[in-house]
Amino acid sequence: MPLISTFFGIAIYMYYEDHAPPHFHAKYAGEEAIIGINDIKLISGQLSPRALGLVIEWASLHQDELKENWEIGEHYESFKEIAPLN
Length: 86
Description:
By secondary structure, this protein is an alpha+beta fold.
């Protein structure tokens, strides 16, 4: 699973040709969550409230780039790295 961003110990991944709806995976401290790209909300899994808040904030800032990466993944092209949350 390609890593597309990391910040504050949180790793953000996407799979090639993953199932709908468009989403990404966030991993932190042994936990994993799947976050929807279109509505930027938790689909499944869990993260601590603080980590989830940071992931939601980051995704809100980079929603267009996440959508572009989702389309790239459907064609097995290389994902673009997305800037971390500062």
